[in-house]
Amino acid sequence: MVPPLQPLDIAQTRTTPRVVFAQETRTLIMQGESYPENSFQFFGRILAWTEDYLTRADGITLSVDIPYMNSSSTKCMLDLLDRLADAHVRGIPVRVVWTYDPKNPRALDLAKDFEEEVTLPFDIVPSRG
Amino acid sequence: MQSIDLFKLRTDFARHEVLTCFNGPFSHGFIEEIGVAVRQHLEQQKVESSAVFDVFAVYIELAQNVKNYVARKGFVPGMAENPDRAIITILWDGDRYAVAAGNAVAQDDGAALERRIVELNGLDKTSLRKRYKEQLRAPHAPENVGAGLGLLDIARRASGPLLHSRSPLDAALEFFSILVRI
Q1: What is the pTM of this model?
Q2: What is the Rg, in whole angstroms, of the alpha carbon atoms belonging to chain B?
Q3: Distance between CA atoms of residues B108 and B173, nearest Å
Q4: Partner residue facing B147 (CB), from A35, A71, A116
Q5: Which residue segment(s) compose the domain that B28 sits in?
Q6: Could you say which of 3.50.50.60, 2.170.120.30, 3.30.750.24, 2.60.40.1240 is the CATH number of the domain covering A9-126?
Q7: Which of A12, A65, A107, B83 could form a disulfide with A32 if both were Cys (CB 3.0 to 4.6 A apart)?
């Protein structure tokens, strides 16, 4: 018996994004800026949850809307994307929807940096408004 | 009575068009507060969105680098030369914003940082991006809070070479400052 999936719902703070898994749509949502005191600690919990989720071989969409992340958060984000890319290779349906602010050219550059690093369906969409 | 001359300090700040300057021990809470305040100020000044993010990002990377360094070295209040205290400032440097930070470092670390800065200054934007992505893929030592990406991120956002200076403090320490023009 696989133990039940732990719920994931981390409230947003000024330096960390909201992180929530929406069961109905199987979407892991990350929303808000990310520059915590210790990015590895913050992302550790999300990575552990994602690894657990992926052992169930269910599909997942990662929806990212992070207007700014510090450099150690980018490293952690790549770890997370790598986990999803591994799952993609194993035939699990995964995709990434990356929202960026079209008014900030750096935001699109960052999305492209990540898109180039991993092989999986990766949509880059401008935010509205 | 010899005491601090705030008017002189103010005059210096005015001459260098200092927007904000902090000198003291860094905490995460402080880094956060100042960062948010500066960003709001820049947004009100109608500074271009990418420049606001660059100033903010360079400020965050420099401040977190200093804070992590002080923690790693075990610098605590009361030590000679007060190496737990650092300075960070955001200013208008003639024709663009600049972020500068300075703190006490071990002389070997100062020499190593200088070599790294000189090396990064020799790279163009394409090479910096390549180096950033290599470092993104480099294995991370679990004991490190940082990812070794900060200075690369700063160099990518800078409009020109990173400026630095080193001033001796005592037999072991020197004051290292770095200025990044956005």
Answers
A1: 0.93
A2: 17
A3: 9
A4: A71
A5: 6-181
A6: 3.30.750.24
A7: A12
